[in-house]
Design a protein that fits this description.
About 30% of the residues lie in helices and about 20% in strands. By secondary structure, it is α+β, with helices and mostly antiparallel strands. A hairpin with a 2-residue loop joins strand 2 and strand 3.
Length: about 625
């Protein structure tokens, strides 16, 4: 049988990643000794992650159709995994990972480990003796009755218990735990396939590579135990993926947005599982094209660390992008994308002709009401406009609120992270100034950005939301109402502000990234503040309330890197003076790859409630809304 070229590409890509890991494997150990940062969990959790996540990758590859002369390699990989698993689950072994306990990270890893054992059962489970199976199962059973974080983590507990039920080691209480954990997660469901991420109170890519990936995985492995629940979760997944396909650019990239974005091509993971279960809203040809392009986008970037393994970062290795819970092995949850290899080579996913992505077919706007998000496409790029998500206070230090606090997240642009200052470590980090409105005030120079946000208008041509900028330590408070309209690569931003103490505001444009420090060309002509590289442009045109313009930049290695997309960046900024009370700020912000579109707008008529703008290449733009102030032209 001649295998489809794309099936071979996925299989060989998985094999190459496995080869790089196996080259590092300790013959007598229980994990892959990956170099990189440690998590804020403990050494045992990091060691277990450095086994379970590569194990999941290996499981997808092992169960795929054999071809050529790879049977010997498969057995060598499977043999090491089995022996490492026995060492890691043996309390008498120096390689023991330690059991799970209440809210321990081991519980997360055990849930996926149990699934991997069933996905590649022929290689990873069946060869064990009864005594060895009992040892491994007893370890997996440490996920029984333990506490799990109130979000998608409930899936890790129930996947472990479903495994134990599958092999005949269930307990009378297990069914009640499974039902309870499912019910808790189902209570997080909102609409259009979206879940609130539990205690994190946010909406982001975790909906794809957590809630829906695990829901579909459970349906595949265990859905026969509860057909009604399987139908419910598969229905939610279909509804979600019909919308979520719109976050993928023509290049295959999706906007970096939210936590754990270092999982990269994990974002496409639920699409093949939906195809496997027959619930995909996408044609087979579009689903494969989406997954192909997403995987290639990242594999072709310099994402590999010095050992040859995948490193923490986005389009390269950038460890500071990670959360506190991330360690060197964490990135291998990108492996979930290889669920595509569960589809047999003769499945339509592999053999049907590719079809264009939604972002290749033209511009669109997709409104996600309960998530408070808008997806839109611009010339093959994709942007997420963020009017509603938040990050809970208890998790600000772990995650960094800038991963949700920008007003816009666009492919090809990325964003800047903040860096945490010593004084502010207990609650949040120093905000970066790009991608929205930030504030400075109080007794020091900290930058304050969005945390909690409430949308109050969300439509196909604009959004409005309200939030507070400030600091609980000093009771610093400014209330903001923000309205945004869009036209091609441009955003029109109107910010009504009410500051209870004297503060200054900075409005940041798109942070333009580059791998070449000397590639930036800046321009300030009094009307527009812009920067360009050879292929991209970022511009900011202040309209109301600002006193000056400036740059946020890193163009040499003396400064600390902050951009997720590349080592160097330049961001155009507009800034006010320091004052209290009410102010209205307005500006136009551009990001894109067309020089003619980066030119300034002319204000033909600026009246309260109605603006008419004119652009040399985009023509007239008429906007009517009560939030629009009048300007003196």
């Amino acid at each position: 049988m001649k295998l489809p070229a794309d099936y071979v590409f996925w299989q060989e890509s998985a094999e190459q990643l496995v080869d790089a890991l196996m080259a590092l494997a300790d013959p007598e150990g229980s994990e892959i000794p990956l170099s990189g940062k440690a998590s804020d969990h403990d050494a045992n959790a990091d060691r277990l992650e450095a086994f379970t996540r590569p194990c999941l990758l290996s499981a997808f590859w092992l169960q795929s159709l054999q071809h050529g002369n790879d049977s010997g390699k498969r057995e060598r990989v499977a043999s090491w995994l089995r022996q490492a698993l026995l060492r890691g689950t043996d309390p008498e072994s120096p390689c023991y990972w330690g059991p799970n306990t209440n809210y321990h990270q081991n519980g997360v890893e055990i849930g996926l480990l149990a699934s991997a054992l069933l996905l590649a059962r022929e290689y990873l489970w069946n060869p064990f003796s009864d005594e060895e199976k009992y040892q491994v199962s007893r370890y997996i059973a440490t996920n029984r009755a333990t506490g799990h974080v109130w979000n998608n983590h409930f899936y890790f507990g129930l996947l472990a218990l479903e495994f134990l039920r599958e092999i005949g080691m269930d307990r009378p209480a297990d069914a009640a735990s499974i039902e309870s954990w499912f019910s808790e997660m189902e209570g997080m469901y909102r609409s259009q396939g979206w879940f609130m991420d539990g205690v994190n109170q946010s909406y982001d890519h975790y909906n794809a590579y957590a809630f829906h990936f695990y829901g579909l995985l459970w349906s595949h492995l265990f859905g026969h135990t509860n057909p009604e629940r399987k139908a419910r979760w598969c229905g939610w997944a279909g509804e979600f993926l019909d919308e979520y396909q719109h976050v993928f650019a023509a290049s295959g990239e999706h906007p970096a947005f939210g936590r754990s974005i270092t999982y990269r091509f994990n974002a496409c993971a639920p699409f093949p599982l939906a195809a496997l279960l027959g619930v995909s809203p996408l044609s087979a040809g579009r689903a494969r094209r989406l997954c192909n392009r997403n995987l290639r986008f990242f594999l072709e970037k310099p994402i590999y660390q010095e050992q040859g393994a995948i490193g923490i970062g986005w389009t390269d290795v950038f460890p500071e992008l990670s959360e506190g819970y991330s360690c060197a092995g964490s990135v291998y949850w990108a492996s979930k994308a290889f669920s595509a290899l569960l589809l047999p080579p003769d499945h339509p996913f592999w053999v049907d002709a590719e079809e264009p992505l939604a972002s290749e077919e033209g511009e669109y706007v997709r409104v996600q009401k309960d998530a408070g998000l808008v997806f839109r496409s611009i010339d093959g790029e994709v942007e997420i406009l963020n009017a509603g998500t938040e990050i809970s206070p208890m998790n600000m230090t772990k995650f960094g609120p800038w991963k949700w606090g920008k007003l816009a997240y666009r492919t090809g642009m990325g964003f800047q992270i903040g860096h945490q200052g010593e004084y502010y470590n207990k609650f949040a980090g120093w905000y970066s100034r790009d991608g929205g409105l930030t504030m400075e005030g109080g007794s020091d120079t900290r930058i304050h950005g969005r945390h909690y946000t409430q949308p109050f208008e969300l439509d196909k041509d604009h959004l409005s939301c309200t939030y507070a900028l400030g600091d609980k330590l000093e009771q610093l408070l400014t209330i903001v109402e923000t309205s945004i309209w869009w036209n091609k690569g441009w955003l029109l931003e109107i910010h009504w502000t009410d500051a209870y103490q004297p503060v200054l505001f900075t409005l940041g444009g798109y942070a333009l990234p580059s791998r070449e420090a000397q590639s930036f060309k800046r321009k300030s002509d009094g009307c527009i503040h812009s920067v360009a590289t050879n292929s991209r442009y970022s511009a900011l045109q202040p309209l109301l309330g600002f006193e000056g313009v400036l740059w946020d930049e890193r163009t040499d290695d003396d400064e600390r890197r902050s951009h997720v997309q590349a080592p160097y960046h330049v961001t155009p900024l507009a800034q006010t003076g320091k004052a209290s009370g009410e102010r209205v700020l307005a500006a136009l912000v551009y990001g894109g790859n067309k020089e003619e579109e980066a030119k300034p707008w002319e204000c033909l008529s600026i009246q309260r409630g109605k603006w008419i703008l004119e652009h040399p290449s985009l023509g007239n733009w008429t906007i009517t809304h009560s939030a629009l102030p009048s300007l003196n032209l």
